[in-house]
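S1.2 Input.
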Amino acid sequence: MMTLDELSKVLECSVGGCAYNEADACHAGAVTIAGPSGQAECATFIPLTIKGGFGDAIAAVGACQHFECTYNSELECGAPAIQVGVRGAANADCLTYAAA
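S1.3 Output.
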């Protein structure tokens, strides 16, 4: 069982249209990875022009609903860090997602 300090960090987010993104860094307290199987979407994505989150924080993965991902253990992400970006038709995807 991991602790809060061990949560996977969002190393980079290239989704410029998100309210939590500034300079390719996610400043949400934590993100949730959700969406249908095979589409690991960042459910924290908010397409607003105003900025939110914590200016000095780098987001962690608070929850991952993709139990079929290689990095998922008990609905928590075990990857050292993740990258979020646009893949396919989604607005923001976890690019680190890897089907087990």
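S1.4 Remarks. The first strand starts at residue 9 and ends at 13.
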